[in-house]
Specification:
seven-stranded mixed sheet, 12 helices, about 25% strand, binds thymidine-5'-phosphate, about 400 residues, alpha/beta, single chain
Length: about 400
Amino acid sequence: MSKKLITFKNIPLSNSLLSSKQEDVELFDLTIGFDEKTKLVSLINNVSPEKLFPDDYVYDSSQSKTMVKHFKECAESLQKRFNPYSVLEIGSNSGIFIRHFNPDNTIAVEPCSNFAEITNDMEYKTYDDFWEKDLSELIRQEHGKMDVIFSANTISHIQGLDECLTSVKKCLNEDGVFVVECPSLLELLRENAFDQFYHEHQSYFSMIAFRNLLERNGLKLFDIELKPVHGGTYRFFICNENSSIDVNHKNIDKWEDEEKQFGVDSYEKLKDRMSIMKENMIDIKNTLEKIKSENKTVIGYGASAKFIQVSNMCNLNDSLIDYAIDTTPNKQNKFIPKSNIPIKKYDEDSLENVDYCFLGAWNFLSEIIEKEDKFLRSGGKFITHIPKLRIIEL
Ligand code: TMP
């Protein structure tokens, strides 16, 4: 039974963009809780996966050069370290990771059929369904057990974690490796990234909580890395509990110490962090009101799910942010639910006559600053709210 940490009232689903301005959208409370037994931070109120991950899902990981590079390097390092013959990816999106493996021995699972179609067309057998027991049994029958099972930013979306993990275990070779990437709760809290809280993100993993869940499902954490993407991402390396793979105790103990010191396993300390986040949210609105009172043009840069959260959690609307721009075709010419901020196509001239860009895609700060050098040199300013509100200018 989870104890409540914070509730954000009346929040729309982060990727359910609208084709026209609408006053009447479906809203849900977003309540984050803490489970004393497993130390897991997760959502208390769930929305059905079919609603969250529809057949016209808009998030495409290939839109950022940083992510393309990240997954290429990840695939190369897994090849080198484990030399797998068979690979399964759970949540393959547009194929950003599997494209580096041989389609003859690589399969994928992706419930959003618009993306499953893309990877099927790339010759990777893709099961257009949610990862659950029946599907895992079908995959084991049709393809046998796997050497590597990979999943990035997906396990934290899954509501039945025990079923998810036992299904992975059943599909994993005796000495196979399960590699999971997900935003680190420790980094989320350090960065005050309250906009990482959204309905798609069912769980916010600390290493301590994730290890507890693995252990109760017959799996063992044997190594861990921290990657800079998405504001700080853990890469967990997992094997069967009886596997002969060496455990990197040094790494695991280091993260355990850091997490304990910060208090990710303590309800009281987590509650304190929530209060800091609330103060930051007030700061964001006050600053934007001040800037807009000077008649400046402010736009959102990157209509990420996080931006959709910030706009609604901080009660921003199109009087404070004129519009947002994004490179993803699926998002363009749509509106953000509730805040009704329009999303326009990004092009080379998008930042002409713009005074401030509010960084919706703050996790790509370096990539964007490099790309928008001309905007900065001509006096343009970026606003980022991570870890605290600040203006970036030359
Ligand atoms: P994400 O943080 O969830 O990956 O979403 C980032 C969003 O920002 C995604 O919709 C793509 C968009 N984006 C741009 O529009 N321009 C950019 O330069 C980058 C890096 C991302």
